[in-house]
Amino acid sequence: MSAKQKKLLIRISAAIAIFVPALFLPIDGWQRLVAFLFAYLVAGYDVLFAAARKLIRGRFLDEHFLMTVATVGAIAIGEYPEGVAVMLFYQVGELLQSVAVGRSRRSIAALMDIRPERAVVIRDGAELDVSPDEVRIGETIVVRPGEKIPLDGVITEGATTVNAAALTGESLPEDKGVSDSVLSGTVNLSGVIRVEVKTAYENSTVSKILELVENAAGKKARTERFITRFARYYTPVVVVAAILLATLPPIILSQNFSDWIYRALVFLVVSCPCALVISVPLSFFGGIGGASRKGILIKGATDLETLSKAGWVAFDKTGTLTKGTFSVTAVHPQKITQAELLDIAAAAESYSSHPLAGAIVRAHGSHIEKNRITDVAELAGLGVRARIDDRVVHVGNAALMEQITVCPRDCHRHGSIVHIAIENEYMGHIVISDEVKPDAKESLDSLRAIGISRIVMLTGDSHEVGQAVGRALGVDETCAELLPDHKVAEVERLLQEKPQNRSLVFVGDGINDAPVLSRADVGVAMGALGSDAAIEAADVVITDDQLGKIARAIRIARRTMRIVRENIAFALAIKFAFLALGAFGITTMWLAVFADVGVTVLAVLNSMRTLKG
Which of 32, 113, 114, 109 is nearest to 75 (CA)? Predict the structure, then answer.
């Protein structure tokens, strides 16, 4: 409990200690008034001061004003116990609400704990303790076991295991060694490492995450803006209604003013909109914070609300649904063995920097004797020619085979086909493809399970490859051979075709998908913490490459919006019911304040469910 909460608890206890004896002691007249007035001031002096300050500034139509008018009015008409009780109930509600909100904020603060406070940098051979923002790119820092890694960089010395749970939401540790990249905010678990800093602190991973979470509250959702506008007009309306209730019926019906003034005061107590004004923003705050702890960064309440309406999802293929790295998936020799074909192809491609060449060399895996290879020539757009063991070898596409008058064999497998010819004699081909991620099919199935009605895949790859991947994953539509501007055009088309009450989510790897991420209703960047363009363009950032978190993000958004709607419906129903009861004189001020405080506390507690993520 904070110091402020303890102080409020002491005041409430002191006020009750005065109030209870005053109820039962045989005192009357001015003594009774003084006793109750003293209890009233102990309990609510801060509310009175807040109302007075806002009255002076001309911005007084809030809960402090309503509570002050209601309680002062009750004391003025001789209802001393009810005036004090209303203030006491209100303050008890404020205390319970403060404890609940504090718990929510501490949960968010746990995420903020990833912020590194220090870095040990090596300068002139000595280790210096400095602030992370004082470390320059290219300097070396030392990170010991149990410490947070303060800056993004590459390990130059040592090996360790790191825990990235604070960034990704996943607690599975990762082994890291020399030349491996490490991210700020992750925790070094086992060994002492030296890291060459590659990114300044203000551009580091941890800084980006903190900025996203801290700024998320600034982007208000449509529901939040509605509640703000509602409270702005609602409060003056109920004040005017209370004045009319206190004056018109006794004049028209020739009845006692005190009875109707009491009803008006009950009306004011019930009318406090704090349940809505507090619980709705808290629900969004909790939903965003809960998602962040799971490695899902949602930029603001607007994006969370739009995500909750997701109906169609479009995916980029390469790097999103597939691994984005080429690998050999089949070797089809002719006249020689698979090992011999792969050996010849790897030798020819060993001097090439082409991604397909790298895939063949990796698949070969063994040492390549470079003294066997001479006269290497890269043939632009075709492949490679080299002399290996005094034989001329051609490795490349079908166009290269046609150029050297060799007839290549067709292949039933989808992917990039690399043909090999030795001394103009066809020896077979190797199939290289971008493998589908292991969790892709399951993740798409989980999207369908939560009601996503259409899944589309966009790719710049060939129709054959795109259709093969699309069939394997079971997508509803595949659009292939798309340039970046074509992808934007396809998203525009999908935006026109989707149901009006549903949003289109586009998921990309974030590096070259910025235009499409910006254009979709919700842009989701996968594993894009290192990409400034992705974080700038996307509305949601998944901190790792786990496709299953897309469905989880949508579920979190939907649950948050469901809780928001529950709070609004519950609060308004109770409010209007007690407003009517108060106007007809059926309820008392005690019950009115209990209803107001009770609704607020229940709404806040309900909002805290969003923190689960």
Answer: 32
Range with the lowest mean pLDDT among 96-105, 202-211, 465-474, 568-577? Answer: 96-105
Closest CA to 266 of 290, 238, 285, 236: 238
Catalytic residue among 316, 434, 461, 509: 316
Cα 556 to Cα 450: distance, rounded to the nearest angstrom: 12
CB 402 within 8 A of CB 390: no
C-alpha to C-alpha distance for 30 and 36, rounded to whole angstroms: 10
pLDDT at residue 80 greater than cutoff 80: yes
State phi, psi for 478 to the nearest 5 degrees: -120, 125
CB within 8 Å of 443: residues ≥ 6 apart: 546, 547, 548, 550, 551
The 10s digit of each residue's pLDDT in 258-303 is 888 888 887 877 777 666 767 777 788 778 878 877 888 888 788 8
Residue with tokens 């500034």: 57
Alpha carbons within 13 angstroms on the beta-carbon side of residue 74 total 28
Active-site residue, 316 included: yes
What's the DSSP call for residue 481?
S
Q: Determine what percent of the chain is predicted with pLDDT higher than 90.
A: 26
In this structure, what DSSP letter does residue 148 have?
A: B
Which positions ≥6 away from 576 have C-beta within 8 Å? none
Q: Is 324 helix (H, G, I), strand (E, B) or coil?
A: strand
**Domains of the chain by start residue, with CATH:** 136-199 (2.70.150.10), 325-435 (3.40.1110.10)
- Would you state the pLDDT for residue 24? 83
Helix axes 257-271 and 63-76, enclosed angle (nearest 10): 150
Three-state DSSP string of 31-100:
HHHHHHHHHHHHHHHHHHHHHHHHHHHCCCCCHHHHHHHHHHHHHHCCCHHHHHHHHHHHHHHHHHHHHH
- H helices present in 293-420, as ranges: 301-307, 338-349, 355-364, 398-403
| Mean pLDDT on 499-525 | 85
Tally of CB atoms within 10 A around 334: 12
Of 559, 568, 534, the closest CA to residue 290 belongs to 559
Contact status, residue 406 vs residue 426, Cβ threshold 8 Å: yes
pLDDT of 605: 79
Higher pLDDT, 432 or 510: 432
> Helix, strand, or coil here: 393?
strand
